[in-house]
Design brief:
The protein is an alpha/beta fold. The chain has helices spanning 13-24, 39-46, 58-70, 84-96, 120-132, 146-159, and strands at 30-32, 52-54, 76-80, 102-107, 136-140, 162-167.
Length: 176
């Protein structure tokens, strides 16, 4: 959203609410990969005093998150669901094996309304992959789902496990 007077990009309420939730829960570091759907969220993260580490590959994020978890931090990997395939070995042979906490916050590309056909196969497969890996996940379709997101994040760090959430395209289509 553009502010007509200043010409500055204004954060979407969903992006602001998610960042507020991350700050409240003490989530850090936030490891991220670029995604068009997450662009506003990434801009909003950069406006706050939270440790944010852009990474080049998803499995690199898993490795850095493991080190952060061992140091007593609450890491989160922010990516699009198409990157999930790149994380599987590291998630299972590092994060799961050593019972380290990690929250995967993913844009759900390839869902209904997706304009890029190459995103559709992984969009359909990502939930099935999480089920096969025995990783609990939720869908965040609107701001009404934010309490569930907060609860699932807390569970991740209390129980030292891997959990995930898909951010649906409709989240940003809500009335602004």
């Amino acid at each position: 959203m553009m502010d007509k007077r200043s010409g500055m990009q204004q954060p979407h309420p969903a992006d602001s609410a998610i960042v507020k939730l991350l700050l409240k829960e003490g989530i850090a570091p936030i490891l991220s990969l670029p995604c068009n759907m997450l662009a506003g969220l990434l801009r909003e993260i950069e406006q706050h005093p939270v440790q944010h580490i852009p990474v080049c590959r998803e499995e690199e994020g898993v490795g850095i998150a493991a080190g952060a978890a061992l140091a007593g931090k609450k890491p989160l990997l922010l990516m699009q669901n198409s990157g999930l395939g790149n994380t599987i070995n590291a998630l299972m042979s590092l994060t799961r094996l050593y019972k380290l906490p990690l929250f995967l916050l993913m844009s759900h590309r390839g869902s209904p309304g997706e304009k890029i056909s190459a995103q559709i196969p992984m969009g359909e497969a990502a939930p099935l992959l999480l089920e096969a890996l025995d990783i609990n996940y939720i869908y965040i379709r609107s701001s009404r789902d934010f309490p569930r997101l907060a609860s699932r994040m807390k569970e991740t760090y209390i129980k030292s496990q891997i959990n995930a959430a898909f951010l649906s395209r409709g989240l940003w289509d809500e009335t602004k």
